[in-house]
Specification:
312 residues; alpha/beta; DNA polymerase, domain 1; seven-stranded mixed beta sheet; 13 helices; binds S-adenosylmethionine
């Protein structure tokens, strides 16, 4: 295993600035390389930080990065869906600030053995938690039926050429199993018409995103996080979520809106009879995006989108 973990945190200043005043307890749901956690502890010197990541390598990296704060942290290898069990184990702490910077780390994308990248030759893997997940991208590509492959590429990749790609996968895999990332990337490159290829955008991007989401059950994981997190927040506590693609951002936006205005009464009624009680307020009216300066230093930050909700 490599001795370092490569990741540049996005929207770091914004994540720190949106922390509630006098933050005492923080939950970082996506430790990654520990960059956000480190900045939050640097700026809230009395705070205690609980942190999780479903990638055990990330937890180890964050632990190393945060060693200066080791009496102010408690880290665990876990996914969003395991938070209720963990919170119980931790003795039911309540948080001033919950942060989730969802998706993959640069480490995932630049480490060929992890199989997330269409740029490097590696196994078709894409598991964030290889110790505990069995299903790999290769299993899906080589075994899923036509309907399932279409569902994944359309729903999770919003891939316009899903039908063509799936049909080529089916014909190729009847001759030989897919083994590597580049075999799949090459197939997609052949299928997508040249005139539809955009400069600076690899044609395999959507297919790889779709597979990664399916392998890691990412949308379901996000919905668990959105379901559980309000109950873990203190009054006036805040939930900050950074997402990297429109499917996730839409889920966050809709959920936040719904918490702010849970009323389901018909608009023609003069007052609310449904009894929906607002949970708090969205404090980022629009998604917060990285500055030009940040994008020039870290191009990956271009697609990051931050939204913050404050509980009443
Ligand atoms: C973008 S990185 C986080 C980087 C981190 N904020 C930093 O500043 O270094 C996203 C991390 O979230 C983790 N992750 C993604 N989905 C998760 C889930 N459902 N539960 C726990 N961790 C998850 C990934 O393993 C990855 O390490």
């Amino acid at each position: 295993m490599k001795p370092y973990f490569h990741h540049i945190s996005v929207l770091k200043k914004e994540v720190v600035d949106y922390a509630p005043p006098s933050t005492q307890t923080i939950l970082d749901c996506t430790l990654g390389g520990g960059g956000h956690s480190h900045s939050l502890l640097d700026n809230n010197s009395n705070a205690f930080l609980y942190g999780i990541d479903r990638d055990s390598f990330a937890v180890k990296a964050a632990d190393r990065r945060l060693k200066h704060f080791n009496n102010q942290t408690r880290l665990a290898h876990a996914s969003f869906s395991e938070l209720p069990i963990l919170i119980k184990k931790w003795g039911y702490p309540c948080f001033d600030y919950i942060i989730a910077d969802i998706g993959v780390s640069s480490e995932h994308l630049t480490c060929p053995e992890r199989g997330f990248s269409f740029l490097y030759e590696g196994p078709l893997d894409m598991r964030m938690d290889p110790k505990r997940q069995n299903l790999t991208a290769g299993n899906i590509i080589n075994n899923a039926n036509e309907h399932e492959l279409m569902r994944i590429l359309r729903n999770f990749g919003e891939e316009r050429y899903a039908r063509k790609i799936v049909s080529k996968i089916l014909s190729e895999r009847s001759k030989k199993q897919f083994r590597t990332t580049l075999e799949l990337a090459e197939l997609v490159n052949i299928v997508i018409p040249n005139k539809m290829k955009k400069r600076g955008f690899n044609p395999a991007t959507k297919t790889f995103q779709a597979l990664r989401i399916a392998v890691n059950n990412e949308l379901q994981e996000l919905s668990y996080l959105l379901e559980y997190s309000p109950s873990f927040l203190k009054h006036s506590g805040r939930l900050a979520i950074i997402s990297f693609h429109s499917l996730e951002d839409r889920m966050v936006k809709q959920k936040f809106r719904n918490w702010e205005n849970p009323c389901v009464c018909p608009t023609e009624l003069p007052y609310c009879v449904c009894g929906g009680i607002p949970l708090g307020k969205v404090i980022t009216r629009r998604q917060v995006k990285a500055s030009k300066e940040e994008i020039s230093k870290n191009p990956r930050s271009r697609s990051a989108s931050l939204r913050v909700f404050a509980k009443n």
